[in-house]
Amino acid sequence: MARRTRNPWWVLFVVILFGGLLGSVIAEAVVGYPVLGFLAREVRAGVDPPLTLDLRIISLTAGGIIRLNLAMLLGVVIAVWIYRLL
């Protein structure tokens, strides 16, 4: 019986990132259809506008936004499911 080797953690990270990107494309594609519009409704969380710290010598700026929607979640689930099959 052949022994299955485990993929490195970064492969799973890339698969999840690809699934989120796929879900984002799906959300953009269905936004025009009223029946599937709920897939494109998104929740945003983050720091907007960015936080700025000015110390006269150096200026530091930090900020970021996470956008989540059901289509992205669906894309991640499909990508992880395909990953597990391989």
Q: Calculate Rg over CA atoms.
A: 19 Å
Helix/strand structural class: alpha+beta
| Structural domains: how many | 1
| Count of DSSP strands | 2
Global outline: flat
Mean pLDDT: 87
H/E series: HEEH
* Count of DSSP H/I helices: 2
Uncertain stretches? none
Task: Summarize this structure as a short list of keywords or feature phrases.
2 helices; alpha+beta; 86 residues; two-stranded antiparallel sheet; 28% strand
Description:
- Helices cover 44% and strands 28% of the residues.
- With 86 residues, the protein is α+β, with helices and mostly antiparallel strands.
- It has one domain (9-85).
- The protein has a two-stranded antiparallel sheet.
- A hairpin with a 4-residue loop joins strand 1 (42-54) and strand 2.
- The longest helix is centred in the first third of the chain and has 22 residues, at 9-30.
- The protein is flat, with a radius of gyration of 19 Å.
- The relative contact order is 0.23.
- The model has no long low-confidence stretch (mean pLDDT 87).
Secondary structure topology:
Blueprint: H1 9-30, E1 42-54, E2 59-69, H2 70-85
Helix pairs in contact: 1-2
